[in-house]
Please model this.
Amino acid sequence: MTIDPKEISAPEMHGYLLGVIAPRPIAWASTIDKDGNVNLAPYSFFNVFSSNPPMLILSPALPRDGQKKHTLLNAEETDEIVINIVSYPVVEQMSLSSTAYPKGVNEFVKAGLTEVKSDFVKPPRVGESIASFECKVDRVISLGQEPGAGNLILAEVILGHISDEILDENGKPDPLKADLVGRMGGDWYARATPDAIFKLPKPNRNLGIGVDQIPEFIRNSTILTGNNLGRLANVTALPTQEEVEAFGQTDEILEMKMRFVNHRESFEDHLHELAQIFLNGDEVEKAWLTLLQVTTL
Ligand SMILES: Cc1cc2nc3c(=O)[nH]c(=O)nc-3n(C[C@H](O)[C@H](O)[C@H](O)COP(=O)(O)O)c2cc1C
Model:
């Protein structure tokens, strides 16, 4: 399907965007107004956009009634904001704090959360959060006057707090301990549990060969996936013919050659299946040595 924002309503567009631009991190923003009333609300139009200076951006939208959200009003009024990070153990309280309570109502109280005094800014941080960032508002950029228009709050981090409980032995945030949560479309959320997250090595610094340089009989495989080709293309050079021939003397390959002596196509399919197993186990070199066995026939 194709979507033309001019042909559909703003709420429909909102739904499509949020359904696929996901999962999004959630800023749990704590602010105060000029009278010192504390406010807390979640915002998933949020991310880090600079580390030097350390700059976070979140975007309270203009609601249908056109009245600015309390977070935006307070950020403009006092130039201070604390951005707390949401993990699974606090999702229900985070969701509750999104309720549109009247201005002046403290959502820390409504959601049963602990106010911890910040070091440099007046808004408190959420004691239950795994991380909090005390920020000065650098600037606010309005993206329009219609309902749904974003208002970017550019928040410069002046002090960060990270719970020791989520650090690894080197003092770095451990994704396996953080139990982070992301916002998806509709009522959906994502939870970064150990079985849901995975590692992907960074592309080769020495420039991988690229998918276009993978021999055609491999590139056009009906078995290998785009992910498989992406990993294969990350090597700087293909194995030498001697290496391929030496690998061809291993029991597994010799047995396959015997089994499919008069069935070249089946042999190739099996090579691709075996290569895929090697790729799934991060053994890229063995995958290449396997795939290139057809060149020894
Ligand atoms: C997980 C989550 C993410 C949200 N993200 C946004 C957002 O990015 N922008 C926005 O305008 N409202 C967002 N909302 C809705 C606000 O939290 C809600 O309007 C809240 O009442 C605003 O509170 P405030 O007026 O105290 O700032 C989100 C709600 C939830 C539960």
